[in-house]
Write a structure and sequence with these properties.
The complex is a heterodimer of chains A (269) and B (89). Chain A is mostly helical and 269 residues long. Chain A has a domain of 73 residues: Serine Threonine Protein Phosphatase 5, Tetratricopeptide repeat. Helices cover 78% and strands 0% of the residues of chain A. Chain A contains 14 helices and no strands. In chain A, helix 5 packs antiparallel against helix 6, helix 9 packs antiparallel against helix 10 and helix 12 packs antiparallel against helix 13. Chain B has 89 residues and is mainly alpha-helical. Chain B has two helices and no strands. Classes of the chains: A mainly alpha (269), B mainly alpha (89). Chains A and B meet through helix 2, helix 4, helix 6, helix 8 and helix 10 of A and helix 1 and helix 2 of B.
Chain lengths: 269, 89
């Protein structure tokens, strides 16, 4: 009987210890009787807990529930850096719920609170590209590059915005700078080639596409682009060969494969 | 008078037919060139925008533990989490 009682007591103690361990380690110990201070402590505690729950929900892909948690944090107006972080995390939830306008608004709010928030700028450029807002994307990308001129993502993002908006000179400069640090990045060679092709610099475009294809021989879109550049240079037979190979390499992309085949067949031997 | 009309009419019809033929073939040629350029332009598209950087904890972006902020500032394309698969840019 005594042994059983001892075991029961030990189990209860272990359970109590376990429960004590579930308290958040950062939970502040109230050492005040002031009501405003107690309210502030409770708010900080709520913000911490909602962050933990929201991030856990995002990790599990429950974007709707995560949205609710981060919206509640934003309503509490936390101080920095939690304020801008809450807007940033809320934007990720909105984007995954296909609410990109709301996501852009939250990222603008994050940057307003923390004007040097690079990750927020990076995500806002990507979301603006998805929304088709090239004007804002370019404005944010310009600031991103100004703050982090050696950042690969800043250069890549502005390069893509510039290509999409027809500013081929800026695209050429950004992808060139990105490649000076990352010469083995095949995708940047391809995008630089597009800028060169649009600027009528076919030799340079051909060189970049050859570099991309050395790095990634099955890069079907680069192969197709090389065919186009060779066609512009009057190299019909070589262009036909490249389109023929692009047709094979683009097997996973039926649209590109069909167009490459049509281009191949349109060139007479 | 009637004889003159009968000889001129077929010539006139042939001339009109030829003119229409030239006009149509010219239009088709222009249309073909336009569609080829459209075809090329529609497929020489820039690569995809980068995927979103991940969430940040309540500690905020400051500090080395913040991976998204480090990715945003990284010089290398892999650490920057840029599109990596060249088969589907």
């Amino acid at each position: 009987m005594r042994v059983l009682l001892l075991v029961a007591l030990l189990i209860q103690a272990a359970t109590g210890f376990g429960l004590a361990q579930t308290y958040a380690p950062r939970s502040p110990v109230p050492r005040t009787t002031s009501l405003p201070e107690l309210r502030a402590i409770a708010a900080r505690r709520e913000i911490e807990e909602r962050f933990t729950i929201g991030l856990d929900l995002q990790a599990r892909g429950d974007w709707e529930a995560a949205r609710g948690e981060f919206e509640q944090i934003v309503v509490l107006h936390p101080s920095e850096p939690q304020g801008s972080t809450a807007h940033y995390d809320l934007a990720i939830a909105y984007s995954n719920l296909h609410r990109n306008d709301d996501a852009a608004r939250e990222l603008r709010a994050a940057i307003a609170l923390d004007p040097d928030f690079l990750a927020a700028m990076a995500n806002l450029v990507s979301i603006d590209l998805a929304r088709g807002d090239l004007r804002e994307a370019r404005k944010v990308a310009d600031r991103y590059v100004a703050l982090a001129p050696a950042s690969a993502r800043a250069l890549y993002s502005r390069g893509i915005v510039a290509l999409q908006s027809g500013d081929n000179a800026v695209a050429r400069a950004d992808f060139g700078k990105l490649l000076s640090e990352n010469p083995s990045y095949a995708v940047a060679h391809y995008d630089l080639a597009l800028a060169e092709e649009r600027l009528g610099r076919y030799d340079a475009a051909e060189r970049e596409l050859q570099s991309a294809l050395v790095l990634a021989p099955a890069y079907a879109r680069a192969r197709f682009a090389l065919g186009v550049v060779l066609l512009r240079e009057g190299e019909h037979a070589k262009a036909r060969d490249e389109f023929a190979r692009a047709t094979v390499d683009a097997a996973g992309d039926p649209g590109l494969a069909n167009i490459a085949a049509a281009m191949r067949d349109s060139i007479k031997n | 008078m009637m004889e003159g009309v009968s000889t001129h009419l077929p010539r006139l019809l042939v001339a009109i037919a030829l003119a229409l033929g030239i006009l149509c073939s010219g239009r088709f040629a222009v249309a073909a060139a336009t569609s080829l350029d459209d075809l090329i332009a529609g497929n020489l598209v820039p690569s995809a925008a980068p995927a979103l950087l991940g969430p940040i904890t309540s500690a905020g972006r400051v500090g080395w533990a913040c991976k998204p902020e480090r990715s945003a500032a990284a010089r290398g394309y892999r650490q920057a989490e840029l599109p990596a698969d060249p088969s589907s840019p």
